[in-house]
Amino acid sequence: MGSRPYRRRLAWSAAALLVAGVAVPATAAAGPDDTSDAPSQIAAQSGKQKAKNVILLIGDGMGDSEITLARDYTVGAAGRLNMDKFPMTGTYTTYSVDKNGKPDYVTDSAASGTGWATGQKTVNGRISKTPGTDKPMTTILELAQRNGLATGSVTTAELTDATPAVLASHATDRSCAGPADMKACPNDTIAKGGPGSIAEQSVNHKVDVLLGGGKARFDQKITEGRHKGLTVTEQAKKLGYQVVTDDKGLKNARAGKPVLGLFAPGNVPVEWTGKAAAQGGTEPQRCVTNNPERKAGTPSLDEQTRKALQLLEAKQSGKGKKPGFFLQVEGASIDKRDHAADPCGQIGETAALDRAVKVARAYAAKHPDTLVVTTADHGHTSQIVPLEATPPGLSSTLVTDEGQQLKVNYSTNTPGEAQEHTGTQVRIAAQGPQAHRVLGVTDQTQLFGTIRTALSLR
User: Fold this and answer.
1) Has 109 been annotated as catalytic?
2) How far are the Cα atoms of 210, 247, 303, 445 from residue 431, in angstroms, in the given order?
3) Nearest to residue 258, comparing CAs of 325, 177, 323, 197?
4) What angle do CA 446, 325, 263 make, to 5 degrees?
5) What whole-number distance in Å separates Cα of residue 337 and Cα of residue 353?
6) How far apart are CA 443 and CA 425, in angstroms?
7) Whole-angstrom distance, CA of residue 84 vs CA of residue 91
8) Pick from 265, 337, 262: nearest CA to 59
9) Contacts of 403 by beta carbon, 8 Å cutoff, 6+ apart
10) Which of 179, 219, 256, 452 is the most exposed, fewest CB within 10 Å of its CB?
11) Full-model pTM
């Protein structure tokens, strides 16, 4: 007991020295169970001011409870996920605002994504547009493109869902996904001089790599403008995209032309399944790790990430191309299964994102001029509670890989209704150039500045 304050002082001192750019001996902050990179390596990485590449990994709804649940189930309470091994870890706040700029303490994914995409807060439901005047705000992906970098977006949701949408589109409302979905965005229609639906904007932006679900949105017909009569998929082909729909097509995609991967009509089916939480709890269960609803030939998130990195790196070497890329990778259905009080689906999607984190960190190990950041857009509902607890909401008991029982509870809404987000701060962790900027308590709008500074974007 007597050594703990001393060890805390050492850890704090090491962090302070690192922020100052001073190398710290590996023994100063690391305990015997430390699984992150050595502090001396951290200082060396963060001392490099400029990044050539940035990989941003987003766990939608992946608060500390969601991370802990996945860790406990898959690698054990004393184990560590890949996302636990980053050398720099902090937290950031996630609130959105109302039309007057006053805090709205619980954000949705559209407003939170807009925060890191543009460096500005907005109202819930809005995609990279101002809260009061509904004007487009420049995104980090747009800045990267203007500066000659390759760009990519990978998600397990529809490519028109909020988190991928904030990078390459501007919409009054997140529901305006395809040409047939524009009811809530009258001023964004092409007939009114607007940019069109999120799907249309995404391909018009010529993002080099777009991988995810949402094929049904892209198969909608365009009713206005120069592409009238075509589907968005046909528009993409006309703009030079290679369109792929399964792992074989993705494997065969070649650099030199942009790639649009559409691997499901809607959201990509989750990897794991099991009994949803229920009032009064469930019998102890093990999760099913091969969801029968997941179509054969659906590439995993880590496979998509690996291919995206390959394609983006290949584009860097093209004649006259500026080296470097920006890639965002989203594990979207952590959130969606949290809403559904489905612990197995939620854990499986967290594990899937964690494998993508491993791919990103492996790439950065070979390319140390790469900034890798992993974080969430907002907190969510799941809580690990004592086995003897009888919570008023929905709960489920799981049997972990350690052979122990674990009880998870969902109580942010009335049973029968979708569970809700929470307004808590969430983890942000990083490695590479400018990684020290995530330390302490920041706001998610500051992530925009971290990426912009790391890539020296004008």
Assistant:
1) yes
2) 25, 30, 22, 19
3) 325
4) 100
5) 14
6) 9
7) 13
8) 337
9) none
10) 256
11) 0.90
Find the catalytic residue in 96, 109, 153, 333: 109
H or E element that contains 120: none
- C-beta of residue 88 within 8 angstroms of C-beta of residue 435: yes
CB 424 within 8 A of CB 37: no
Locate the DSSP E strands across 416-458.
426-431, 441-443
Residue 212 near residue 199 (C-beta atoms within 8 A):
no
Domain definitions of the chain by residue range:
50-455
Determine the Cα–Cα distance for residues 311 and 210; give it in Å rounded to an integer.
11
Do residues 369 and 53 lie in contact, with contact meaning Cβ atoms separated by under 8 Å? yes
Distance CA 28, CA 46 (A): 18
Cα atoms in the 13 Å half-sphere on the side-chain side of 86: 29
- Based on DSSP, count helices (H) and strands (E) in the chain, helices before strands: 15, 16
Answer for the pair 118, 128: CB distance below 8 angstroms, yes or no. yes
Question: Per residue of the chain (458 residues), what is the pLDDT tens digit?
Answer: 443 333 333 333 334 433 333 333 232 223 333 444 544 455 455 545 899 999 999 999 999 999 999 999 999 999 999 999 999 999 999 999 999 999 999 999 999 999 999 999 999 999 999 999 999 999 999 999 999 999 999 999 999 999 999 999 999 999 999 999 999 999 999 999 999 999 999 999 999 999 999 999 999 999 999 999 999 999 999 999 999 999 999 999 999 899 999 999 999 999 999 999 999 999 999 999 999 999 999 999 999 999 999 999 998 765 555 689 999 999 999 999 999 999 999 999 999 999 999 999 999 999 999 999 999 999 999 999 999 999 999 999 999 999 999 999 999 999 999 999 999 999 999 999 999 999 999 999 999 999 999 999 99
**169 sits in which H/E element:** none
CA distance 211 to 309: 12
The encoded tokens of residue 85 equal 């091994």
Task: Classify strands 325-331 and 150-158 as parallel, antiparallel or unpaired.
Answer: parallel
Tell me the C-alpha to C-alpha distance, in Å, between residue 411 and each of 111, 278, 396, 418. Answer: 23, 11, 12, 10
Q: May I ask the CATH class of domain 50-455?
A: alpha beta
